[in-house]
Design goal:
Length: about 230
């Protein structure tokens, strides 16, 4: 029996075991398999390991998407999560090339994936509070939001959770150094049903201007001398 003789349910099941690239390559072989590739039911879960993958035409966004993760663990993440004033010209140029990639993708998710249940972002240094706000507004069923090492996330995201995260049951803001203890306490007060985790966030030194940073370093040196 040839693979194309299988019914649609069997083909969807077979496709579900393949990664995004393999699915796309198989879909190129005939029109019937292309139709299976384009079936929204195949795309309830998407995992990406770098912003570059978001630009590949090897997946489908739609109402069937329930779980999404963008986890970038490359050494380059350290560059994107540096404060702008600390970056050299090469680092700034590198970040400029993809600073809107994840944000633009998430805006597409807002417009096309209203049934999203969970979102995980790790190492996405260019994602802003405004982007998370739009996502919470447009994906009202979101139950799990996990943010790790996302340097631009601040208490504004926590405020958005209290206003628009009615369905949210789990919130992680790990290693997000611009989140404060006051913001976390507000979430605990306003959303007692949310399981909140903030590993190494509110206790980290937040971003500040170079002058303030220098003052903190001088004060620290004086304490050591004493």
């Amino acid at each position: 029996m040839h693979i194309t003789q299988l019914n649609r349910e069997c083909l969807l099941h077979l496709f579900s075991f393949l990664d995004k690239n393999s699915r796309k390559n198989l879909a190129k072989t005939c029109h019937k398999l292309l139709e299976v590739f384009q079936d929204p039911l195949l795309w309830s879960l998407l995992n990406f390991h770098s912003p570059v993958e978001l630009k590949k035409d090897n997946f489908l966004l739609g109402p069937a998407l329930k779980h999404l993760s963008i986890c970038w663990y490359s050494e380059r993440v350290k560059v994107c999560n540096l404060e702008d004033w600390r970056k050299n010209s090469f680092q700034k140029d590198f970040c400029k090339r993809h600073e809107n990639t994840v944000s633009d993708f998430l805006l597409d998710v807002c417009n096309r994936c209203p049934n999203l249940l969970s979102l995980t972002l790790s190492g996405c240094g260019h994602v802003t509070d405004d982007c998370i706000l739009e996502l919470l507004k447009n994906c009202p069923k979101l139950k799990s939001l996990k943010l790790e090492n996302c340097v631009q996330i601040t208490d504004h995201t926590l405020e958005a959770v209290t206003l628009h995260g009615a369905s949210l049951r789990m919130l992680h803001v790990d290693f997000c150094r611009n989140v404060t203890q006051a913001g976390l306490e507000r979430v605990r007060e306003k959303c007692p049903s949310v399981m909140l985790r903030a590993e190494r966030s509110a206790n980290m030194i937040p971003d500040s201007k170079p002058e303030k940073k220098l003052m903190l370093e001088k004060a620290s040196r004086k304490l050591v001398q004493l």
